Amino acid sequence: MRKKDPSINNYPGLYGEAHVSLQEHYLFAERIETRSIGFDWSIQAHTHPGILQVFLVETGEFELLHGSGSEHHAAPFLTVIPSSIVHGFRFGSHVRGWIISISELRFAALWRDAGSVSAFADQMLMITRFEHPYATDVISGLMAAVEREQHIQDNEQPLMLQACLQQLFLVIRRLIETSDEHHAETGSAAGHLRKLKQIIQRKAGLVTVEELAEQMNLSAAHLNRISRQLTGLSVSGLIADQVVIEAKKLLLYTNLTVAEIGYKLNFDYPNYFARFFRLHTGSSPKAFRSRKTL
């Protein structure tokens, strides 16, 4: 189902890590300069299917690359980049800041009792003004806490990490809501993509390209052009990604059998579902369910 633009690299982990498997509980925090210096401060356009990222630039200037072009920015700057959105950076050597990468499934698990909190994560968001009491150093401190906790191994670590992540994303949500300067990707194409992803998410991936085109009053060919331009994936690829997310939720949080989940997700036969799941995750549904971790 997925068709990728061969000119855009897709990394299931950190930038440059092409041969790893994305784990449902994936989380990694690091300084921007830690990885960027090894790539001569130039991060080529790429995507991270299944991963949401937060970048905080504390000092320095840089160029942000995205599906519709590039923009010059200077610190302080924060951006939230959801799964499969094409992005890249050309950092100045004086750039300092933080990056947090988290799997969409782990992010969704943060808000089981407050699903609306995660609504902002379906579009690229940029913040250039940090309103009191959430100055840049506050955000930096929260991201540093995540980085610190990821290396601690004790019984309290999962709960502490969850608390740190929830606080970080709630603060970002407040900044988004109060800042006049925040903006999502601009242009009609980005608007179409946001609507497209919202419909796919609302339909739990149980929708065809033709149905989406009809709902959006656009041709299927035009929708595919927009999707490839901004994400590197066809519309079918976006649908497949959402079906995988729904399958993982059902495997982790329900007692439905694998066959029942397959039928619920509109697969005609259980083996079709199992083959699809393995293709997109590298694991069988039963093996994935047996891990039972986030």
Descriptive account of the structure:
- With 294 residues, this protein is an alpha+beta fold.
- It is 43% helix and 19% strand.
- The strands form 2 sheets. The protein has a 6-stranded antiparallel β-sheet. Strands 1-3-8-5-6 form a 5-stranded mixed β-sheet, with no helix packed on it.
- The radius of gyration is 19 Å and the shape is globular.
- The two termini are 26 Å apart.
Characterize this entry briefly.
The protein is an alpha+beta fold. 43% of the residues lie in helices and 19% in strands.
Give structural attributes.
294 residues; globular; disordered N terminus; alpha+beta
Shape: globular
What's the N-to-C terminus distance?
26 Å
- Largest beta sheet: strand ordering: 2-9-4-7-10-11
Class by SSE composition: alpha+beta
Low-pLDDT segments: 1-6, 180-186
Return the average pLDDT rounded to an integer. 85
Beta-strand residue fraction? 15-25%
Number of helices: 11
| SS elements, strand count | 11
How would you sum up the major sheet?
A: 6 strands, antiparallel
Radius of gyration: 19 Å
Helix content: 40-55%
Topology pattern, helix = H, strand = E: EEHEEEEEEEHEHHEHHHHHHH
